Design the sequence.
């Protein structure tokens, strides 16, 4: 379990309503990133995924998932944040 807690997780695809909440039981939200399968996903389905992320309850009160995952990515890839 300790090794799993040290990994980073991508919530691309259909991550809500079940997968991400289940992931957050053993893993801290600072290990979750938002990736994209957009190139392989039809636009309407990609829009539905984004809407699900935007409407999901965030584990950090007052910080939506987009802000949380963006901060995680900037921390993991600081050279990309410029």
Sequence:
């Amino acid at each position: 379990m300790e090794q799993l807690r040290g990994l980073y997780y991508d919530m691309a695809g259909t991550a809500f309503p079940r997968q991400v909440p289940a992931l957050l039981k053993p893993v801290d939200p600072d290990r979750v990133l938002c990736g994209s399968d957009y190139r392989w996903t039809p636009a309407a389905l990609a829009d539905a995924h984004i809407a699900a992320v935007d409407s999901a309850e965030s584990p950090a009160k007052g910080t939506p998932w987009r802000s949380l995952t963006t901060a995680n990515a900037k921390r993991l890839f600081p050279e990309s944040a410029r």
Summary: The chain is about 40% helix and 5% strand.
